[in-house]
Amino acid sequence: MDSHNTERNALRKLMRERRDALPAEYRAAADRAICEILLDLPEYKSADIIFCYIGVQSEIDTMPFIQKALADGKRVCAPALERGGLMKAKEITDAGDVAPTDFGLLEPAAGCPDVPAGEISLVVVPCLCCDRSGNRLGYGGGYYDRYLAVSEANIAVVCRERNICEDGGISPLPHDARADVVVTERGAFRRSGV
Prior knowledge:
Blueprint: H1 3-20, H2 24-40, H3 42-46, E1 49-52, H4 63-71, E2 75-82, E3 86-92, E4 98-100, E5 106-108, E6 122-125, E7 129-130, E8 136-137, H5 143-148, E9 154-158, E10 181-184, E11 187-190
Parallel strand pairs: 1-2, 1-6, 6-9, 9-10
Antiparallel strand pairs: 2-3, 4-5, 7-8, 10-11
Helix pairs in contact: 2-4
């Protein structure tokens, strides 16, 4: 393992521990604010189909955002992980369409239809940490980077302020997908030129 991977894995461990240690009250308040800001994004308002992860454990709770998007008449997809490090977007119509996996994730049920990446307007992506320039540190599986490489959707990464890294704190790799907008409880931060 090269030193860059060692550094990234150490940062992943640190940021996961930091996220897990955040007070529940702070997490809940931040998550509500993040969902409200997502709903106010122009990318959300103009989107017909949205692809959003479903937060579990100490991740940002995206279910209120998903439920409001469905109530607003948007088509909503959630990720389903597949062998070979691939991920599909599967359409859900309500919270009952998701179930826990062996890995503790919530994924769409097997019968939920696939939605091609080219039809999706907005992808809401998780992270362990990110900077305000749109560089994110994920969990290390590369699922989102591979998926986003074939998508032309707008990318919004969600992150609580206490997990934001200073710009330059995350050294992106050539294949890392960069977010168009970073959403925290304090607002939406766009990378320059977007």
